[in-house]
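Researcher: Going back to the complex we discussed earlier. I've cleaned up the inputs and rechecked each line, so this should be the final set. Can you rerun the prediction on the complete assembly and write out the structure?
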Amino acid sequence: MLRLDQVTAGYDGVPVVGPITLDVTAGGVTVLLGANGAGKTTTLDAAAGLIPVMSGSIEFDGRPVTRLSAPRRARAGMCYALEGHRIFPEMTVQENLRLAASGQRRASRAVWDECFELFPILAERGEQRAGLLSGGEQQMLALGRALLGDPKVLILDEPSLGLAPKIIDQVYGAIRRLTGSGRTILLSEQNVGHALEIATSVNILERGSLAFTGPPDRLRDDDRLKAAYLG
Ligand SMILES: Nc1ncnc2c1ncn2[C@@H]1O[C@H](COP(=O)(O)OP(=O)(O)OP(=O)(O)O)[C@@H](O)[C@H]1O
Ligand SMILES: [Mg+2]
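Model: Rerun complete. Updated structure for the full complex:
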């Protein structure tokens, strides 16, 4: 579905990630784990086209997208929910959703239904200013907005960041339901426990390089990684 092949990316000519090869399988949940500064956001930004790759190539949905702009990748079906749930706080929940749904890939009735089924709170609070939602509700709004792009792959950067444990459970419950309905997900996390519960494939970034790639069970076979990531 989405493949990064020997990709390096960085800033001001200095690579901070790579070369890494990352495969996102259709219908699966590909998890990118790593500590602060490991290069998770850089990797996702490169995948979504927010920063250029320095070398390597990216293929999405059967075609090369390495040189495609972020909006064109979005049009092709890549939806990216940035770290720290970006929403428009002065606009109402409805307005936030309508804006997301009016993009290049216009949301169908079915996608609106899917959105409100997953996040009933967004229907209930439709008229409320988005900035007044709780942190968890804002994260749901961010997920709802990404979903309304009807993504072939949904890219989420640390969806649990800054949220209380109970709210993280809710957000992950929603992500789990998204995968249940067949959506393909690539997500980064420092919150290992929640991510591993839904992962079909795990990639661990350490200082810009992949230290592990495989199914979550195999992580338990490696004593060093087990100690570092499973506690
Ligand atoms: N805009 C930027 N300009 C220069 N260096 C940057 C920029 N953004 C990130 N970096 C550097 O690149 C490295 C990787 O950062 P990145 O944000 O990808 O890590 P991360 O895994 O997402 O971390 P976190 O968990 O804190 O979000 C870090 O050393 C960081 O300082
Ligand atoms: Mg980050």
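Model: Worth noting: The chain has ten helices and ten strands.
Researcher: Good, that matches what I expected from the previous run.
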